[in-house]
Amino acid sequence: ALELLDFKNALEQFQKLVKKMITQKKKERSGLHTKDDDEIDYDKFCTTTRALFGPAVKDHNIQAFFRKIIYNLDRSPDWLEIFGCFIEESDGLSSQLKENMVFLVSEKQQITDSVVKRKDVIKGIVKVPHLDFTITASQKGVITIFDNQCRVYGIYVEMDTGWINGCDFLPQLKYVVAVTASTIMVWDYKSDNKNNCFVIKPMKNCLLCVCTVTMSDHLAKDSILMGDDKGYVYLLTMTSDNFILRQYKTEKGSQFHVLDSETFKMVKRKLHDDWVGKVRYISALKRFGSCSSDSISSFVLDDIKRLEDNLPVKEFSVPKGVNAFTYCGKAKVIVTGG
């Protein structure tokens, strides 16, 4: 309770500091301000902020907030944008206080034995709750599985298939799936042979994103959604029969087992006039969503059956398109970011 009270007091002082500085900067621009000992420059702002919130505040956060104030004097920036989220008093707050406090930087854990090499970036990260592990996929082809203690216990590296653009987990088949510009990679991480990876090709357009469709309880079947650079959204269904020995061949000099994309059940429909930035199946709504930088068909939310027919889809237009979206089941809202 004392920590909560201290934080509220600190927040009130911080808001007064921001208000005073905005007033000062507006007077400076109008030529009415005269410099004195009480003037708030960056050094004073930084020192005061640290005194209020402690060493958990990082220099780059303070600097970003200060710049935002300077360049947006007509609209006071919200401290939430930089410093996190504060939860009001409610039942059970005492037991959740540690999780609800704003500055938890010291509790973050860094994986020092990184499996991603220099000049590589993470393109996908997926939490698999029922197996209690996390999958990451890097742009240059490193697919890694971490357990709940952040220990690496499965890794696959392949540099010949192009950049990876996204990944997900197939819950029924127990495989990891990833997409590159021209292929779909399916990795059997349980195999003793760490190179037991299948490649589905050819794909006509460049694949940009992928997600699992969690609507089937069939023990040997999974479906995925994918988006490409031409505005198409694909629905691909995979079964265990697709991965039996007679189905694939191994190309010379390759560690992949190659599968013909024509042997899979795949439907597609053009929903956007630009790149598909993200696809997701929202189980709670029994709908899929896809977004694009297209200003006309920016965001589509509809039944997955619409990919198999030509009926109109529910779509929303946003100037300059939509780059990301998410669904909150508790609030029953979809939030988009352009």
Automatic annotation (TrEMBL):
Signal peptide extent: none
Top-rank taxon: Eukaryota
Key words of the record: Repeat
Name of the protein described by the UniProt record: WDR64 protein
Lineage of the organism: Eukaryota, Metazoa, Chordata, Craniata, Vertebrata
